[in-house]
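User: I've been going back and forth on whether these two constructs are worth ordering. Before I decide, could you fold them both?

Assistant: Sure. I'll take them in the order you sent them. The first construct and its structure tokens:
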Amino acid sequence: MGRNSSPPRLDGNGNENGKNNAINNNCDNNNDQGLYSIRDRFPLKRNPGHSRDRTKQHSLLERPPVRNRARFNRKGLLHFPFRGIYLFYFLIFFSVFAFAVASMVMQSSITVTLFRQGERSWMRSIREGLRFGSSLKFMPAENPRLLAEGGGFDPMRSTDRIGIRGPRLAVILGNMKKNPQSLMLVTVVKSLQRLGYVFKIYALGSGEARAIWENLNVQFSFLGPEQFDHIDWSLFEGVIADSLETKESISSLMQEPFDTVPLIWIIQEDTLAKRLPVYEEMGLQHLVSNWKTSFTRANVILFPDFTLPMLYSMLDTGNFHVIPGSPVDVWGAESYSKTHAKHQLRKYNGFSMDDMVVLVVGSSFFYDELSWDYAVAMQTIGPLLMRYARRNDVEGSFKFIFLSGNSTDGYNNALQRTALRLVCCPSTVFKIDVIPCVSVQQVASRLGLTQGSVRHYGLDGDANGVLLMADIVLYGSSQEEQGFPPLIIRSMAFGIPVITPDFPIIKKYLADGTHCVFFPKNNPDALLRAFSLLISNGRLSRFAETVASSGKLLSKNILASECITGYASVLVNLLYFPSDVLLPGSVSEIKQGSWEWNLFRKEIEHVNVDISVDSSVVHALEEEFAKHIIDKSKNRTEIQDQDALTAQDQDLVTEIENFEDYERLEMEEINERTERDLGVWDEIYRNARKSEKPTFEANERDEGELERTGQLVCIYEIYSGAGKWPFLHHGSLYRGLSLSRRARRLTSDDVDAVGRLPLLNDTYYRDLLCEVGGMFSIANRVGSIHKRPWIGFQSWHAAGRKVSLSTEAEKVLEETIQRSKGDVLYFWACLDFDGEGERSNHALTFWSMCDMLNAGHCRTTFENAFRMMYNLPSDMEALPPMPQDEGHWSSLHSWVMPTKSFLEFAMFSRMFVDSLDALHSNSSEPGMCFLGSTYLEKKQCYCRVLELLVNVWAYHSGRRMVYIEPHSGLLEEQHPVEQRKEFMWARYFNFTLLKTMDEDLAEAADDDDNPRKMWLWPLTGEVHWQGIYEREREERYRLKMDKKRKTKEKLLERMRNGYRQRPLGL
């Protein structure tokens, strides 16, 4: 092979003379530390046919030595007499090759961390499916993939939409440190604000970044543990949690009704990922389940790179998603450069400034057997490098550093064994044998290198210092990365020229010859050319300095634009935008392409800045669960010790049992000898019937019920779900009204709305009616539950939105009711949009606000329902006029009125709801709701119209409307009756007319004359008319006469048969 190669000589056995003589030369002088024979496992043979004759095979250590001169054969290089330029090019080959094999050793430990015993079968299937040249990637589940691809938001822009406010987002901050994580989140929030999002920040604690967040024109408040359950998360279109520290606050989002609020959880820490294998080894499955429950609640969990979701694979429930991009690498490089110098690091590690340090790095993630593919590919570089080994244009001392794995003896030994195989016999590098470990210095000595030419550093050490020492960084991984390699970003941030394979993900952001130097994978010629471009006379060339400078400038904001647009895309495709919300701007409108470095410049320049990310909640939960286990074990031991019976205790128990048996037998004998009178049958029957009467529940009349005795008013707070309990009030003025039996408070006398109105058992109608369904349940036989002259209602939302009555306002309300005369509606939660209406171009009226809340169809739907309710002709106006003044209107079902007026309102509401349901059922698309644009709005189709219905009824029925300021208790009458007489439609809201209509419907229901298949009206309350009253009176009279007849017959029977009193003395 080659022009100067002579034919190989054969020995007496027909084998090539001198084969493996390099091994003999290196090992025959050391009998104790020589290489062990590998003949028994993998015999090396030139001709496979010779393996049949084992008597002619020789051990590798038994081959006769040959003269020490350079010689080549068809198998490759046998000896290495390299110096100078030859040594440099061979070191390039050796560094890349050795790094690949060393990285292979690292993969096993990472694999053990990722795939524990519970995942062995899954890991085995992955190994069987992967082949050389393939790569392992994180593939998101169906839902996260839809988040990235979208497809459901653009049609909303093409429809007519009336919005008054921007979409609200809540951000929960685990800490307020000035670190790369805060820089990323601040940049994203500022960009999303430009698209129209409105943010409210909830901080779990104060910190250095507080001033930055407060200056972002956002609402800001602190959130303590006692406040977790007092936040109305339904006010927001979505919630963003920024770290693992927010886990406890997320628990409040797991209960109904907040379990449907979209939650985005950003996780940038690996603290929990490192502890998960430990939990499994220790058997702490309950702790893993606790974390998995929290992870399951999130609609999507966002990671900044593709390694973290693999580390957290034990907790993956299909909601993992990756948005690449974080300033942590650039931040870390700049902060490290402020406090460390290159010459000091080289001096400390034994390098001089004249050395040319080449750092070989690779993928931060390896998996079983995949790195062997890379090693096999690198083995072919050897002969190609030798073609250029005769060039002598490089001078200087070259040092090669491998940055991989960790700083343990296992990784160093793997590198040393690989290098020794390469020295002794390159063709046997991939054989599995036993080779004694030697030091890196011994390897270098065998190669003729100076001491310290080859070194290994672990990623668990000072990786920043290793990067800062380097002159050139070679990215040596053969696996195509799914995300941009972070080590390349950090190297560029240090201002180091980078040589990397031309992977698509890297070519997407870097330009060849401008920001780095590319070479085709497994192309040795291109790799040599890349090195030659960066080196000139043993130093970095001007081209290398230009590449390093351009790369450093680019690394400053690399992936920033992708990160911002990624978050915007996730929000657009995850959130629901109600009818009154303005749609955010398009993702294409984002122009931000850099991080907000100017807000964090001082922290980067700070000497003692700490950018490490740790999670105290992980360790706190560990201590809590460990303490629970210890206490439980201790209590069990104490109970066992206390329950242990002594011999004296057993004798005492036996004596007590014998005495009880003796007494029982004696009493039985006495009872048998005594004559007993069973009594009169009527008395026995009467006592039995009394015992069968149902008893009241223990919580039927508690202290609150006793306190309400004699009061004029009771306000029913409507709720459904345990998450709403903290928003409910306690005391004599309030009483809970639960729309769900499962979510009813057990320690209070809350009214069971489902038990009073069976219609609410149907979740479909319960969602359609919302709080009005609870009002219908109270109105149904109101005398059995409410016997006070005044009645009020309040939604749990009032407390969440800070518009519930204060103590002072409650006193004002009670005092005002005592001296009130006539029908008055007192309300304290008014219809507004948090001041957004003041900034709109058009004045907001009652009907315009109703349209905003109902997808623009409030007026049309109300008019059609009103027309059907009163059977009005089509050419007649059917939309009740409402004034366009600046007065307040009631909302959130928070009002008080006389009980008699409430029953009239309930009568009107039942008929209106029935007409509304008839329109909904008779539409061309059954089940389609035109009063909502999102899934939740369509599910609660009637709720927003019914919430405003009390205003129309009170206005046109002539009731006074008085607004109570919820905090101060100030009273202010709205829309005076004298000013609205000419606008009122009093004839349609007259009590006599409504009562007649109600009786007509009741008669039709009594006669089973249903106007449609599913008639809602009879199911919403009492069905009563004069005919039913007369029939009930006749039934009562019949029962009364039957009772008299039976009593008379019983007396006659006694008189006929006689009745004799038994003597008392016998």
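The second construct, handled the same way:
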Amino acid sequence: MLPSPGKGSSKFHNNPTFGRRDRSDSLDSFDLQFNNSFDAALDNLKIGNNTENLNRKSISDSKENFEMTSITGMESSRSNNQNKSMDRDNRPLIHNTEDHSTNNENPRKFQSVPRTGPINSFMSIFKNAFSNGSFGVGKNKSSISLNDDITEREIYPDTTPVYDKYKYPSNEVSNAKYNAVTFVPTLLYEQFKFFYNLYFLVVALSQAVPALRIGYLSSYIVPLAFVLTVTMLKEAMDDIRRRRRDRESNNELYQVLGKQILVPSKDLKVGDIIKLNKGDRVPADLILLQSSEPSGESFIKTDQLDGETDWKLRIACPLTQNVTEEDLQNKISLTASAPEKSINRFLGKLTYKGSSSSPLSVDNTLWANTVVASTGCCVACVIYTGRDTRQAMNTTSPTVKTGLLELEINSISKILCACVFILSIMLVVFAGFSNADWYVDIMRYLILFSTIIPVSLRVNLDLAKSVYAYQIEHDNTIQETIVRTSTIPEDLGRIEYLLSDKTGTLTQNDMQLRKIHLGSSAFSSESMDMVTDYVADLVGSNGKSFGNANSSKKSNEIGSRVRDLVVTLAICHNVTPTFEDDEITYQAASPDEIAIVKFTESVGLSLFKRDRHSITLLHTATGTTMSYQILQVFPFNSDTKRMGIIVYEEQTEEYWFFEKGADTVMAKIVESNVWLEEETGNMAREGLRTLVIGRKKLTKKVYEQFKADYSKASLSMLNRDTEMARIITKYLEHDLELQGLTGVEDKLQKDVKSSIELLRNAGIKIWMLTGDKVETARCVSISAKLIARGQYVHIITKLTKPEGALSQLEYLKVNKNACLLIDGDSLGMFLHYYRQEFFDVAIFLPTVIACRCTPQQKADVALIIRELTGKRVCCIGDGGNDVSMIQSADVGVGIVGKEGKQASLAADFSITQFCHLTELLLWHGRNSYKRSAKLAQFVMHRGLIIAVCQAVFSICSKFEPIALYQGWLMVGYATCYTMAPVFSLTLDHDIDESLTKMYPELYKDLTEGKSLSYKTFFVWCALSMYQGCVIQGFSQSFTGIEEIFFLKMVAISFTVLVFNELVMVALEINTWNKIMAITELLTFLLYVVSVPFLGEYFDLEYMKTLRFIGELLFILLISVFPVWAAKSIYRGLHPPSYAKVQEFSGV
């Protein structure tokens, strides 16, 4: 029976060893004053026995020497870090890459004081005052820093969940955008930040003023209410779905040690120890204490956190792997660094029974929203909850992207509003100011002409976007494409810059080792049989291995060197073999490592078994196994660009340090040589990704010294990574034996060459931003046709100083058809010193290739191009390192690749292959933009023409602000009588799909914005004025304007208005389909059928006469025929590009 939390905590109250302790042995004199002041304050507050918990913590602080350092010490440390960062590629394996300035949590040293009773608020005031330097800190205040760099939280599983349960954030997950209070205000703001919605709100509100009311109130309220209702219902449903998902997550039940019932996820507290089984979602950030595996290993799936599909190995703390559950609850304490965003970094320490300590790293963590993949169970302690978890801190609310077309329409709406205001004033001026209420007349005219800015415009455009998204997702030529942002499909047709990753985007990320080079000899795919023969001799007939015989007389022979290299490749990695259905598969974070392990398997040396402590190789030729103890692993990361491992071979009793990495860093670590730089360049020119392989034999004494110093450095809570890196450099990373090079090929994606050629011909400027080396990037660019045959490549590399940098750009100012190839250091220098000058040149180049780029540099490039050019930028990538670039683009496209789904989940559009991008841009982008442009102009035409009719009527009626069309006529005109035919334009297309790829140059017309411009807008304005004047003018002349003829005049003018819109839609359609024909016919029949019910607005007897039909046809002919004739003549004299293509292709 496990003790209850109460019992577990009471033993400290009765234990005399947990009294106050003299702190005179502290390393910092400030600690004594700190503790005395704090204890005195607590005594004054008479907290009672609760101070025992504080004293317990004080003992732990003294015992483990977690002392606060002075500002001077911190500045010195930062200075050292800055100096080391000047040469990033030469930094040791493990180093301090993160800054804690983004931490949201600021836990202090003394933080376990229970918050009980009525003293909570006073304690809060006390702590604030104390942290500001009160209570006798005095002159020491200037030398003490309590910033986030040195703060951490201490966790006691027996007391923290009880006394500090309100100190840390709740673990309840909430992804809801709104609540009952914010729902309506937030939505109203989102809707009325657009000018045309705000305009109609003002018009609708004006109808509450009796003097301004014109016609029926419903004429203005209903359309606006419809728009808002549709939007609010959509947002409400989305938020309800989010809350349901949150509720499911929050109510998942977990077993907490010491509690008899299962606890919901939302009620978990920092310090709780929970038990997880295979398939369980990790509910908070945890430290792994125990695993059912004797080795303490456990695998997790992290695809929902970082997008990577490979399983990750996690290791239980060795101090707690075999202890009892009672000891886990009562005899351990954890120290954890302050919460931060990095999912690849964690600093902590676990103390058992107040004496034994073990460092904690990211290998001991289970981050929230990962999933336990291993069979069996594991036990872990909660260290971060709610908003402090890595998942929450890396979750940002997606920004609402606004398409370029919407911005253009918003600008046009402002022009229309100005026109309405000017027209209203002119009508009042012409009427004269004899009327004392002339200002009221202006307002009434503004309301009468409000149809110029149609309230249905936003509804039509939003619905059209949904249609485009459906069409994209159901296009069989680009299957599995997902539209994650439905607000910007039109921008797919306006892209002028494409920023692309290389690996996994242009290439398949399907790695195969194609070549190994040993300096004096090389082996490619054709000669790998020789390597197999050499490896077959790795183990002698007596079973003894001589692959690593460093002092052998045959050490310089090629066979021995090949065997040594293959053994190193088989050992130096982080690959884990798994058996499924009697087949071996490999799990690793990098496909490069899997390719190398598969290569060693193909030549006769297989990875048979691996756990945290050992690795076993199988020699295929003899069936012999070779076992090595794993003493230390130094994982690969993007900053160190290398990975290493220390192993002990029991058979020979030898210690070996193996390391592999990029040539830029390994060149300074291996012994001096004359061939490395040349051969890495040669391999890169072949398009191969190169790794330099090296090794070093260690004596037992050297290893023991390294182990002692490294263990000491790993326990530091301050500058731990820097100290560990220094030890690695001191003992290991120098004078390594250079064993050879490996060349791994990454094949191009399907149809990459033709896709890039199409996009270039479409006028899209392509930038390739990659972290790979210069030669490899150049080779891939040539093979992928990024660099055209015979195109000059201007190379800028190793440029770190601003002096003379601008001279490197002079040639590109003259030859703007050249290609620029630049490395990350040079790009960083230009971004820092000559941003404007660099991009003034680069944005006009057809291709730019940037190598050795960091993720932030990729994002910066995208943002700067957007800022300086104002053009639409599309970014495409497949890995987690591309997410920042994708989110910085106008249009982000993610590829579902072998690196996982992180890029796909963060993107606006998700595709499976790079070649699908051409279909997305050239076909769907074209249709989305041209359809929305035509739809927007038609909706504005529909509003303009009715406003012109109103203006003509007002002028002819002696400038009286009387409504021409009232009540249902206004609502019906914008909905039932015209909406379906106009909206059917979203199904139209001007050319066949095949022609978009046959003539990609047509895309250039879209980027110029010719479909919706001020020119086309004013053409439609002129057209609307002509048709409005014709319709209303002839209607009044045929019937008269007197009051007794008002119903006749309205009947003929409104009927012509509706039929005119139907005919105009028919004239604008390029490619008819059944839906278009049906909408035209049904709308016509609907109007005819509804006429008998409109006796309130029409003279129905007049509409039954032949005279009415004759006058209707005459007006309709005068309104439409000149427009059709002018359009036909203009198209004949100035045919658009797509018309030329259609004519040419039809011949």
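Notes on the second construct follow. Residues 1-150, 546-556 have pLDDT under 50 and may be disordered. The chain has 41 helices and 33 strands.
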